[in-house]
Amino acid sequence: MRISPAITQRLAKGVLILATISALGVLIFVIGFVLAGGFRHISWSFLTEPILDMGRGGGILPAIAGTILMVFVAIGIAAPLGIASSIYLAEYTEEGRVTQTIRFGINCLAGVPSIIFGLFGFILFVVILGFGWSIISGGFSLAAMILPTIIRTSEEALRSVPKNYRDVAASLGATRWQVVTRSVLPYALPGILTGVILGIGRSIEETAVVIFTAGSAVQMPKSLFDSARTMAVHFYILAREGISNENAYATAAILICTILIINVFAYSLMHRLMRGKS
Amino acid sequence: MDKIISKLLFLAATSSTAILALIALFIFKEGVPIMAKSGLAHFLFGNEWRPLQGMFGIFPFIVGSLWITAGALILGVPLGVCCAVYLAEFSPKKWANILKPAIELLAGIPSVVYGFMGVMWLAPIIRTHLGGPGLSILAASCVLAIMILPTIVGVSIDAINAVPKSYKEGSLALGATEWQTVWRVILPAARSGILAGVILGMGRAVGETMAVIMISGNATIIPNNMLDSVRTLTANIAIEMGYAIGDHRQALFATGVVLFFFIMGLNMIALKFSRRKF
Amino acid sequence: MKKIEIKNLNVSFDGFHALRNVSFDIPRNEILSIIGPANSGKSTILFCINRMIERIPNVKVEGDILLDDRNIHTIKDVEELRRRIGIVYATPIPLPMTIKENILFGPKLKKRLTAAKAGELVENSLKAAVLWDEVKERLDSSALRLSGGQQQRLCIARTLAVKPEVIMFDEPCSGLDPISTAKVEEAMKELKKDHTIVLVTNNTKQAARVGDRTAFLLMGELIEIDSTDKIFTAPSKQKTEEYVTGKFG
Questions:
Q1: Which of B52, B117, C9, C50 has its CA 20 to 30 A from that of B133?
Q2: Residue B104 within a domain
């Protein structure tokens, strides 16, 4: 007996909806699980006190500071480099063998697993350049990791600016650089910022790279050459070594909230860019 | 002036490729000598990993990585492709605009949080209902399936959207139902793009480190079934890096070399597929 | 007296021969209309004159263009050339900023302006483009909120603000209604006093209305160039007659 196409369609659609619901269910479950376990233990003092007794007591202020500093270093390097790369690719060259090679490099770099960035950062920054386990080493390694994200997102943003704007600026006597800075970058800015914010998010959630290059000191970092732990590393150590489930949950909850805020922010920026285009 | 800017931008654009080259250089420089010393075949296919006795066989880890990745694909690919088809072809546009970034958010959750969930929730369930240690291939596969979901969904949606609208209209005009159109026209046309997404997801699964360390159990033996505990290539590096010196450290970099080749191979295949149009 | 002299201009895109041996002069303080069917190379001539064609990949340009007897390819500073030769495109392309910012975009590329100078420049440019009375109350509102015809006159004003000697119009009224078109044409006639104007149009009636001289281009070749009266009443080539009387095109 043949099942009628209408029934097949209904069945298929049911399966697809089920799959989508379960994917979302997982998302909600993960977030709910962590927040439910963590919110009870979050307090003002947890955010502002030093890490005591390897994380059994006290707060996570040094981890927050470590996270912020490392993200700053990473973005400080990756954002200018990445945006410049994307400007070159989108505005300063024709597609050809050179861009193919560059794009190949970017695509491959995007696929390199974080543990490899960790090994690389360890041998180059920590050992050979002698920065030791430090915020600098961690930030540099993270910068290498997030570079492809920033390049891709900002190139897309640059390409979404109408070609006309460039023609108008050039016809009014703008130099190539003026065309870019005055009639392209201002309109690509939300998209470029989205890339940068996604890079920040990637840096915050990363553990493997940081643990090999920045170490996991519990003290408050005093300079960029000090070892420090990020919130993700702190959480990993608490959970893995069974130091304190309560504090692990609380740290995870803070991490998840940060990531949520960052993603929502990045998405709304992207959305505004797309709306502006139509 | 414009010439100088152009040169600087070009320099920035080559940075990704340069970083990739540096990564390869340093990892190989550290890792290749020990491979030569213990013999490539012994290194790749040796069953014994006893760093203190100078025995470096990573075959169990290769097997472990493959098992876990295969498991993740079996669980994640159908789920991901179903989500993609629903979001691209069936769901109301408004929903898709919210649901797609929600699924992308799954990639934003730190991998250590997934690992933690696996330990606290999934592993005990597996232990009580299916037996074994709980921390196992199955647990790791489940978690990785979730982690690679955003990659598969994102790339597949792009592939489906890239199919010319006329194909769909043509099929519908001939009296096919929406599902028949999706199944017989759109999916075949988007095949290579979806495959690229699957392979990129595979790359993510092979390269994932922290979550896997937490939930795979890390036994250095060749597993017999899905409930056994295993150690992956990435986990091997991350676990022992903290205290390894001399030959041992080199052997970990050599593990990195194998991983690097593996990932680059997958990237090349994915690039091939994503370039092919219909 | 001639402002621009075009000699043996040949252009090909990726092997497609867009212009073949085109030579003619553009006299000072006149409106020259260039007419012809779509894809006959009219706009390409404009892009050669302001060298915007160099921004397109895989183009080959041969021949000489003289501006005030000087070969434009010997002008080192291409930006300077483009400031001397303004262009208004077929569709109005206001930049997504205020009316005032649009006008000042060009002048600010070169130097900083005092508020008084800027205000004066905005007013003069808008007056010359016959737009001042309609927008003088809302110079700081978005240019995107203007109507199509107003946007096009804003684009003319923006071009005028850099004080060009030549203004080229690339089918400037193709998207406009008759009333807006009349206003743009009025502006053009005003501008002729101080500028040399080149008007590309596929609307033969428009060429007849505003052009002092008219050139007819067909498939990349210049068929005929003469005074507008002559072209429309007694052309010397049969192709021209067939085109202006509407037998093809």
A1: B52
A2: yes
